[in-house]
Amino acid sequence: MADDGxxxxxxxxxxxxxxxxxxxxxxxxxxxxxxxxxxxxPGPLVFERGEGAYLIDADGNRIIDYYCGMGATVLGHxxxxxxxxxxxxxxxxxxxxxxxxxxxxxARLICERIPSAERLRFGSSGSEVAQAAMRLARAAxxxxxxxxxxxxxxxxxxxxxxxxxxxxxxAGPEDAPTPVxxxxxxxxxxxxxxxxxxxNDLAALEARLARGDVAxxxxxxxxxxxxxxAPAPGYLxxxxxxCRKHGALLIFDExxxxxxxxxxxxxxxxxxxxxxxxxxxxIANGFPVAAIAGRAELLDLxxxxxxxxxxxxxxxxxxxxxxATQTALTAEHYERSSAQGQRLQDxxxxxxxxxxxxxxxxxxxxxxxxxxxxxxxARNYRDVARSDKAAYARFAHELLKRGVRVLERxxxxxxxxxxxxxxxxxxxxxxxxxxxxxxx
Length: 440
Description:
This protein has 15 helices and 14 strands. A seven-stranded mixed β-sheet has the order 4-10-9-8-7-5-6, with helices on both faces. Among the domains are: about 30 residues, no CATH class; about 250 residues, Aspartate Aminotransferase, domain 2 (3-Layer(aba) Sandwich). Strand 8, helix 9 and strand 9 form a beta-alpha-beta unit. The relative contact order is 0.16. It is globular. The two termini are about 30 Å apart. With about 450 residues, it is an alpha/beta fold.
């Protein structure tokens, strides 16, 4: 295992991870099982185990982790209460193709905590429940068009993977974005049911809704896939009012924001209750659980002709993990974790400023974003897209060599295990990496 001196000197090495990825690319395409694990320097890593705020990789490096399972591990790695709950449920059974009491307990917890959740259905991933939400909206309204926003990500399916990270040379004018396909092999016709807008522009949204053909407006209530951007004052309230006026539904994608911005999600923090909400990631601290929740009369359409299925929906072991996770997400958890997350965010901002690096550090205590090259806070995707991503990627690599793992897109996720000592170690690495970045 690498010691702290090596980590601080910036000399961690990752040869064993590289060897294992290359060797096993014979069996696993690209050596990874998600494309989002590619493209990060020095390459995909192989991890042996996780402990609290740390990951231990195949080379024995002990690394402070701010990926947090892409935002899922809000309680850190291997929390004892979640493990105990899972072990107990495994003894009772794994999959019944029927109902279990644990899924009803899980549903009750979400309905009590999420303002929009009068009813819900469970799924296995955010991509799946996004599809369920769009189907439900079209069934309820008899309309086809879904409004989505540049930079917002709602899953990898053909009908929604549009303009999630478009190049500005292809995105068209800001007031009339050109839809940009997200993958080779994607069906171009699948995007015909979408209308792409820029986020945080209420006038543009109101004008689009006035055409009377929109089934739903689908958005991250705080833009956290690209950046960590709060809604402009009055934007969410205005979006809800415009949807009501023109007969469309408002859907919040809280896959990232749920259980990070507040126990009741962004809708609790901002005081705006949508018609439907989709959740995943931190809902079960890394176990594959997702949910669609909302108004009872809408969700009840799933029992009246709108198909929603899935072999692994409400899988009992995952439900046990979810109940244990939600039980641990107390007010004290948020107070303590948020204090350290805010201290980390403030410390990074100060260190970058001292190093003479122009950057914006913005967001929320448990999920924030660092963008190099911006001299003003980002308001939407196009602002984030103008940041110096290459410079930030080099900074992220310098951090990794010092034992701190952060997403190269700029997002930092904080868990309850990022305590004062971990934050102090992180800021030491940030200071050293910032010196390298400034020199570069």
